[in-house]
Each structure stands twice: as C-alpha cells, then as structure tokens.
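To illustrate the input format used throughout this study, we show a single complete record. The first block contains the structure-token representation of the backbone; no residue identities are included at this stage. The design step must infer an amino acid for every position from geometry alone.
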C-alpha cells in the first residue's frame, strides 16, 4: 500500500518571520529621530541665551566707552579745570564731573568711574557689574594738548 507523503508548506513563512522580527523598528527609529531633534532644539535655545548675554555685554561696553568719551569732550572744553575732574573716593569737585558720575551710576549697573590726570594725559576708567557676573572695566586715555 502506498501511503501518500504529504508535506504542508505555508506560503511565505520566511517573509512572515522577517516581518515579525522587525516589528517596532519604525517606532524606535521615530523615537531616536525625535530625541535628536530635541537635542538640536535645546542647543539652539542655549545658543540664543548666549547671544542675548553677549549682546547685552557689548551694549554695556559701548555705553561705558561712550560715557568716558563724553567726559573727555567736556574736559576738552573746560581746559583750564582739569584738576576739578580728578576723582577721589568716588567724587570730584567740578559740577560737570559730578553730573557725569551720576549719569554713569544711572546708566550702568553698579556703575562707578575714576578720572586721573597726569600732565596732559587724562585716563577715564568706567567700572560696572552685570547681573550674575564679575566687574567689567572700560579704560579710555587721551592726551588733551592745547
């Protein structure tokens, strides 16, 4: 008697197994892509914060230089009164200098200034302290010869 030999083969069984091995791979790839995107966005936010900080610092440095230049201009006009602009203990005897020191204090955070005169060379040092930082200094010297 002949017994039939029957073999059953599932069609596509190998491809079905390959599909089940890759289940969730697309989801994992999407999660990694989202993670990388978030890291990029966080880096951009940090860069934006540093740019704002650098811009504020540059603005204060420009203000300090402008204030020092303003005093040198006043001193050039008031050429006979250089001694009145010399600061001792944060004050000076000239009314123009006193008003200028008040302007420095109002314009810059914790703004102070010192003025020294050595012959015809005038040195103006403007100091300020930005929030959460160390003291900064702008130093301007000029020779006022007449």
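Output of the design step:
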């Amino acid at each position: 008697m002949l017994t039939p030999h029957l073999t059953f083969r599932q069609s596509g069984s190998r491809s079905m197994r390959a599909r089940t091995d890759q289940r969730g791979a697309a989801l994992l790839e999407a999660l990694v892509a989202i993670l990388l995107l978030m890291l990029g966005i966080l880096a951009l936010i940090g860069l934006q914060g540093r740019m704002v900080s650098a811009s504020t610092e540059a603005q204060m440095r420009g203000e300090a230089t402008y204030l020092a230049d303003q005093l040198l201009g006043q001193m050039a006009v008031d050429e006979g009164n250089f001694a009145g602009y010399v600061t001792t203990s944060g004050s000076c005897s000239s009314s123009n200098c006193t008003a200028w020191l008040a302007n420095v204090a109002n314009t810059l955070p914790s703004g102070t200034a010192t003025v020294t005169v050595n012959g015809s060379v005038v040195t103006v040092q403007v100091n300020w302290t930005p929030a959460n930082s160390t003291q900064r200094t702008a130093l301007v010297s000029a020779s006022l010869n007449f």
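Structural context for interpreting the output: The longest helix spans residues 25-77. The chain has a mean pLDDT of 86.
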